[in-house]
Amino acid sequence: MKFIFVIIFVFVFSHCSTCNCGKEKNSQSSDTDYENLQKISREKYGDSFIMSANAAKDFYLVTDFMKSATELSIKFFVYNIKSGETVLEDFVSSGSVKWADKYLLDVQIHPGIVQRNNPKTDIGYFYNFETNQKINK
Questions:
Q1: Looking at per-residue confidence, does 26 or 68 come out higher?
Q2: Average pLDDT of span 117-129
Q3: 45 or 66, which is more confident?
Q4: Using the 8-state DSSP alphabet, how is residue 8 labeled?
Q5: Distances, alpha carbon 90 to alpha carbons 29, 53, 75, 97, 109, in Å
Q6: How confident is the model at residue 95 (pLDDT cuts 50, 70, 90)?
Q7: What is the per-residue pLDDT for 30?
Q8: Which of 53, 94, 95, 99 is the most exposed place for a label (fewest CB within 10 A)?
Q9: What DSSP string describes 91-111?
Q10: Of 114, 63, 119, nearest to 90 (Cα)?
């Protein structure tokens, strides 16, 4: 009797783990959107890229991977996973790019030569994806 129960349990469990039971219909479309993002990233940067999602996971920051210590430049783009569009693309010769908040991207640019009369050593901008506004620092 136990043997029959184990066989039925294994059959039911293996069937539910291989089918789409309990999965939303959006999961297939989001998988396709994510694969599309990876394809675009490979076309732009080859296999050396880093993807970073915002807190809501509806925007992805994709940066090219720094290949050596002498290459300080960062190419990046931000992709809206819902619309399937690149919403921002830029290049920073020396600096950093990261998510500052749920919909706020922080782009820091480090100048090569610090000027005497300019106390700001870091320049750059914030980009707000809710309002689609670039905010200078």
A1: 68
A2: 79
A3: 45
A4: H
A5: 28, 17, 6, 10, 12
A6: confident
A7: 73
A8: 94
A9: EESSEEEEEEETTEEEEEE--
A10: 63
The C-alpha atoms of residue 44 and residue 72 are separated, in whole angstroms, by 18
Spacing of C-alpha 102 from chain mean position: 12
Q: Are strands 104-109 and 123-128 parallel, antiparallel or unpaired?
A: antiparallel
pLDDT in tens, 17-41: 333 333 343 444 578 899 999 999 9
What torsion do the CA atoms of 67, 70, 73, 78 make, to the nearest 10 degrees? Answer: 30
Number of domains composing the chain: 1
> Which H or E run includes 45?
helix 26-45
Closest CA to 51 of 63, 39, 67: 63
- Local structure of 66: helix, strand or coil: coil
Structure tokens at 119: 């106390």
Quote the tokens at residue 68.
């050596």
Query: Whole domain around residue 111: which residue ranges?
Result: 2-136
Mean pLDDT score, 48-56: 95
